[in-house]
Fold each of these.
Amino acid sequence: MNDCWQTLLKQGFNEIGALLDFVGLHAADLPVSIEASQQFAFKVPMPFAQRMVKGDANDPLLRQVLPVKAELNAQPGFIDDPLGEKQANVLPGLLHKYHGRVLFMLTGHCAVNCRYCFRRSFDYGRNRVSRAQWQTVFDYVAADQTIEEVILSGGDPLLITDSQLDFMLTALEAIPHVKRLRIHSRLPIVLPQRMTTTLLNRLQLSRLLTVLVVHANHANEIDQTVERVLFDSSQAGPILLNQSVLLAGVNDSVKCLAELSKKLFACHVQPYYLHLLDPVAGTSHFEVDYDTAVGLVSDLRSSLSGYLVPRLCRELAGQDSKKIIA
Ligand SMILES: *Cc1c(COP(=O)(O)O)cnc(C)c1O
Ligand code: SF4
């Protein structure tokens, strides 16, 4: 199974033309930009591409990954570090912004490059942590009794191997005041084969309460393989949550958001956050304005059970938590 996900990852698309051929579209009919893909690389794993609707230039999955000319338009207010992550970067790879929890960026890589990514300009070079540097992070966590939760993030933390994760968990389990482990990963969605039995068994054995926060924006991202993997993951112990980003032309309708919540919940995943787009340079064409977003979530609330409605939130630099809007 291990070899299987790593092979699939290597076989992903890293050339725009190859993906367009695969989905039966022509570059000439789309606002494709090679220059945009030079600023932030193009990358799509095969299992995700297979869920795109063939011949549909407006496919919501394609829109999330296709580099387009609009990314090159500078927009006022859209900057490289809108979240003030530089100030919270206490050690290479470690962000300590909020009380009680730290966020550990294990790798700068992802299986998919989402064009709206809030960390598309993050300095991963400066934050590349070798296995030896992990120890400085463990020491930091061990020295601060207020840290009860460690969040593994990235890039995508599940791109590290099962044996590296085992090493990481063992080190965190040895720090008595650490109670919870949270994993923020898009891999269960875009490359579900990553959820190996070795990984699930290891999570199940941990003394830490484990929360797996996946990232899906549209119901079409969840096919039968994803459904099964999410269900199996939930059976292995972790609490499953989902975070989405509200994206123009992808999921900015009540129908889309309701379908997504219902489909997630059917696989034991609870909707958590619906993020307003972070104003990162190159992403302004995905913006849904504040009032429209509030209206959408209010309409969603009138059509769904309360627990199916994600919290609309926004992150502002320098605040002590993400801010819940609705
Ligand atoms: C989002 C985030 C968290 C987690 O916030 P929650 O509201 O607990 O989900 C923690 N640290 C950093 C740096 C974050 O950006
Ligand atoms: S998976 Fe997450 S971190 Fe990676 S490119 Fe997409 S949004 Fe960014």
Amino acid sequence: MIDQEDIKAVAEVLASGMIAQGEKVKEFENALARFVGARYGVAVSSGTSALHLALLGLGVGAEDEVIMPSYVCSSPYLATLHVGAVPKVVDIDLSDFNICAATVKEQLSPKTKAVIVPHMFGTPAELDELLELEIPVIEDCAQSLGAEYKSRRVGGFGELSTFSFYATKMIATGEGGMVLTNNKEIYARIIDVRDYDNKPLTPTKYNYKMTDFQAALGLSQLKKLQHFIERRRQIASLYTDRFSEYNVEVPRSYDHKKSVFYRYIVMVNEIEHIKKSGKEKGVTCERPIFKPLHKSLQLFRCPNSDKAYDHALSIPLYPSLSEREIEHILRIFDDVFAQCKPYSYGLHCDGKL
Ligand SMILES: *Cc1c(COP(=O)(O)O)cnc(C)c1O
């Protein structure tokens, strides 16, 4: 959601003539690090370059293994290939759609150098259990900026965390990303590889820099983040009140973690029928993950991820929705969900029924 303040912030930087990486980028790095509760921030060109640099920051390289969930976009997988490491794909817990300690354990080996933990759809993963495994955790917060685990914001728990500011994320800079860490040496390494210029010629140098006008947009957006989150939670609560009346599974709520509802996911039977029926009535809903990684790779068994793919549907939820639009969506799904057959989900993280 871009408003006049955002436009003004970007215009000021453009008018200054200093449009590449400079003071605004530094300011944005400090502001995001402070907001999340981490010491150092490195702004980059995307969430994927953030993951790539996070892996380089940990020194992950050829033959090392990196564990990640199947039920995620291809970005963590690609970032792992970029450093020459081997991606190990594991199943999720169906209660929150996240990677969990039980499934990570199945792929742990002496070669495991990192676990990428995306907090999917804005809901934090079970971080305490994952951190107990004592493998460096990279929190992928591309969908979860502002979410809380045990009263602290996600992104401050792992050895590193990464963020995306792509147009549709919690805050937007068009394209953009950030790496946060509390570790000074990792920070220095990442700063070094972000920029190739005026340095000895080595292969691991990139141009992953953010521009000052993107950073100005990021700073302006960050001021509104708390408002975006409150609005998302309000809409989610309206959806949950209403949809609980039907044969669908609404998102769980937790005492120890607070979602930012980047996506509002319901589990339904006959997903294609529901999608079609919604579309005919004027609301387009999508599967939140285009294709789980294990389905493309055909190397790993992930029954919960299969189940999520078969049944999880994302209902439109944006802070910019008007009261009328929300009412419209609620009415349409009154009709659509009234036709649903009961849905109950069984498999949990440990694969037991
Ligand atoms: C969007 C996203 C990314 C990648 O971010 P880009 O800025 O598009 O490169 C990585 N992980 C997750 C979970 C995402 O949602």
Amino acid sequence: MSLAQNLTKISSLLPASVKLVAVSKTQLVSTIQEAYQLGQRRFGENKVQELVSKHPLLPTDIEWHFIGHLQSNKVKLIIPFVSMIHSIDSLKLLIQVNQEAAKAGRVIDCLLEIHIASEESKFGLDFSDAKSLVESDTYRSMKNIILRGVMGMATFTDDITIVRNEFRTLHSCFESIKKDHFPTDERFSEISMGMSDDFNVAVEEGSTIVRIGTALFGSRIYQ
Ligand SMILES: *Cc1c(COP(=O)(O)O)cnc(C)c1O
């Protein structure tokens, strides 16, 4: 199927309230342009260098979402233009984002990445770490970031029951943090979960942002 057909199909499967981040990692600038022509405005990248080199070649009204593991020393490279960082996995990283955003005169939307998968390798905060982070004075004093919600990645498995349970766990982490720390803050409202193979389950479990690559662009070619 063509990119246009994939985009139409995926969009038709998503409730209007769910935001689609087109994960364009490894995709050519011309492919991103094609998706842009079709009306897609949110794109996600997981490597700082790749994002920094693609960004100046593309329209300025693209919303760039950073979805990969982010090293503190690379934060400053994306701060001038990034729209949302999904992968806040430590207080140290959030401090760096806040500092660099202050220098750039920006306020950056961030999500707390919560570790929900059974695999050891995946990044993310444990629920208790996420709680401690939002309870810390350091976080409370930050003026240049806004916590918008949580993000998570399910275990890489065909077993949909496992995936569904992990999404449920993420949803309840979100609800718990919301209730205790952001009860009246409407900005804390996002649950970023669901990729090509599991976005329908994620949506059923309350996702507000899905991050979709291969189902949109076809399989990735790594150079
Ligand atoms: C690559 C990636 C995706 C998209 O994965 P697909 O299976 O291609 O849809 C989503 N989220 C993150 C964090 C990724 O790195």
